[in-house]
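In this section we turn from sequence analysis to structure. A common task in structural bioinformatics is to predict how a protein folds when a small molecule is present, because the ligand can shape the pocket around it. The inputs are simple: the amino acid sequence and a SMILES string for the ligand, here nicotinamide-adenine-dinucleotide. Study the lines below before reading on.
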Amino acid sequence: VFRPGPRPRCRIRLGRGALARLVGDLVQERPAHRWVVISDSTVGPLHGAPLAGSLREAGLAVDTLSLPAGEGAKTRATKERLEDELVRLGAGRDVGLVAVGGGVVGDVVGFLASTWQRGVPVVQVPTSLLAMADAAIGGKTAVNVPGGKNLIGTFHQPWGIYIDPAVLESLPESTYVDGFAEMIKAAVIADSRLFGALVRGMAALRRREVEVLEPLLARCVRIKARIVKRDERESGMRAALNFGHTIAHALEAVGDYSGRHGPAVAVGMCVESRLAQGYRGLPPRDTERLETLLVAAGLPVRATLAGTLDELVAAAYRDKKVREGRVHCALPLRIGRMPPDVTVAVEPDDLRRAATAVIDFAPPTL
Ligand SMILES: NC(=O)c1ccc[n+]([C@@H]2O[C@H](COP(=O)([O-])OP(=O)(O)OC[C@H]3O[C@@H](n4cnc5c(N)ncnc54)[C@H](O)[C@@H]3O)[C@@H](O)[C@H]2O)c1
C-alpha cells in the first residue's frame, strides 16, 4: 500500500487477485453510492464487463459506459459524450467512476471524474503494461486537441489503483512491448539496480512470466509514486519522468500521432541519452547499455521519420515544456541517477546533432 500525492488515501494494490480486492474494498469502504465502470471497445468485453458483473454480484449499483479504443478517442468530444451519458443515467455527486483500460481510458475517465460535479472518486484499473507501470499512477489527466497532446487536463488523484498483471494476457504483443519503454525509463531516472534486473529478466518478461514481471512492475510503480508524492504538480522532480519524452512528443507530433508511444519514447531516450553525454557527462557506455536493453525489449533504437530535421526541432519548440523559448530536457547523470536540477535548457544545434545520430529523415516526396 502506497500513498501518492497529498490525498490521505490513494491505495495501490498490485498482484494477482487485485481485482477481487477492489470489489472487497468498495463494498467495505463505500467511497461512492453507485459506480460507473468505463472502458474502451476492446477492453470492455474482456475485463470491464466481468469486473462490473463482480461488483453487481457484491451488491453494488453499477452501470457501464464505453469509448472507442485508441488514442483517437482521447478528445473533448469523448468526454462530453460521456458527460451526457452520466446525465442520462441520473448520476449525481454520489457516483464513483472505475476506469478499466490503458492510458487513454485512464486519462479520459480521470479527467471526467475531476470535473463531474466538481470532482468525484475515480478508481484506476490499468490493463496495459504502460498504464500499469506509469500512466495510471500520479493523478495526471488529459485529453488531446488538434494543436497538441494532453493540452487540456487536471490533477486528480485516484481513490485507488488496482493492478492485476493477469489481465496482460490479452494484450497484443506490440502494445505489451510498449510498456517496457516506461519501465526502462523508470530505471534510468531512479534505480540502477532495477536497470540490472530488467537486463537479467528481459527474456522472461518477453514471455510474460508474471512471477518475474510482478516485482519489477512494483518497483516501477514505487518509483513513480515516490516522485509524485514529492512533487505532485511537476515543479521539479516530477519532470524526471519526462526523460526521453521531449523528443518522443516531437516525433509523435511530426508523425501526426499515428505511431505507437513506446517506440517514440525508446528513440527519444536514445536521443536524450546523447544529449546527457554532452550536458551531464553521462558515460557513453550508459547509452550503449540503454540501447542494448531497448533492443532486447523489442523496441527500436533508430528511426526513420517521414519529415525533416527542421520539422522535428520546430515540434520540440512547441512542446508544453518549452520555457522562455528554450527546450528543456530531463537528462540523467548516469543510469539510475538524476541531478537535483533535473532539466537543462538544450541548444538547438545540440538537439540537431543528437537527433541526427539516431534518426534518419525521409521527407515525403511529392
Ligand atoms: N497520465 C499520465 O501520467 C500518463 C503517463 C503516460 C502515458 N499516458 C497516456 O497513456 C496513453 C497511452 O496508453 P496505452 O499505451 O495504454 O494506450 P491505450 O489506452 O490506447 O491502449 C493501447 C491499446 O491496447 C488495448 N488494450 C489495453 N489493455 C488491454 C488488454 N488487457 N487486453 C487487450 N487489449 C488491451 C486498448 O484497447 C488499446 O487499443 C497516451 O494517451 C498517453 O498520453 C498518460
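The longest helix spans residues 210-230. As an exercise, try to locate the residues that line the nicotinamide-adenine-dinucleotide site and compare them with your own expectations.
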